[in-house]
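Re-run requested by the PI after the first attempt was lost when the workstation crashed. Everything re-entered from the original request form. Ligand of interest: protoporphyrin IX containing FE.
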Amino acid sequence: MAVPVQPDDAADTPKSPRYRLGGMGYQDAAGRRLSYASYLQLPELLSLQAGRSNAHDELLFIVVHQAYELWFKVLLHELEAVRSSLDADDLPEARHFLRRVKVIEQLLIEQVEVLETMRPPDFLDFRSQLAPASGFQSVQFREIEFLSGLKDRGYLKLVESAEERTVLEARLNAPTLWDAYQDLLARRGVRGAAEVYADQDRHRDLFEVSEGLLDHDEGFREWRSRHILMVERQIGNKPGTGGSTGVAYLQSTLDKRFFPELWEVRSQL
Ligand code: HEM
């Protein structure tokens, strides 16, 4: 439902100091009326797709990767909200954010198909100009892994700048979703996931959160498999621009689990 703008409502004041309230609604720092373009910072956003070649498909390639990074940003925001909700014993709220995480991850899996419309020779028209850039260096992707429970300091050497390393160090030192889940179980006097699954009626809310976490894990595993198929389709067994063996390296990541215990518990039922 559209909420009518209440310019004199203090709660409606944007967080950002970029805007101030004028007689006719919000204005930017230069006194211009807030618009669709200025609110979304579209001039800036749409000026960020300059490629390195004249190849037709480079625009698609850049936009798809940027869209992933924007969704990664939202995922991190939502996953942090899941962790805070678990810390606050607010399980319905944790479920709410986990449902959104699942839908976004489905979108990320579907989006792979857009890049598969690229014909391999068309990709080769500009691929050499990307090296040594690679998804390998996606800081937000590693942040999602680290926040979810899959911490691997080894990836720090792949990132280029001190700022990026600082961001990843902070994630390495911060509690994970798994830590928050285990603390929650401990507060409830539950010894482990097996106990939750052994009596799902008694632990209904914990059970639903556990399944929501598993959805997140499954979403990532599915994305990994889907990404590999696309990579194989585009470059076969060539090495990656990031310097790995390519498909062979990616296949070695398929065993990664955010919450191994939630997978193992199935076998124990
Ligand atoms: C034509 C399309 C693509 C190709 C050929 C490709 C290829 C590769 C290869 C070969 C790697 C292994 C690392 C390396 O040596 O470079 C890799 C890693 C990665 N790629 Fe892609 N990729 C493509 C599209 C994408 C897209 C759209 C994303 C979305 C963000 C993405 C995200 C990643 C991530 C996060 C990794 C690291 C995975 C890990 O270490 O577990 N890639 N990619």
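Saved to the shared folder this time. Residues 64-65, 68, 115, 123, 134-136, 138, 141, 227, 230-231, 234-235, 240-244, 246, 249-250, 253 surround protoporphyrin IX containing FE (CB under 6 Å).
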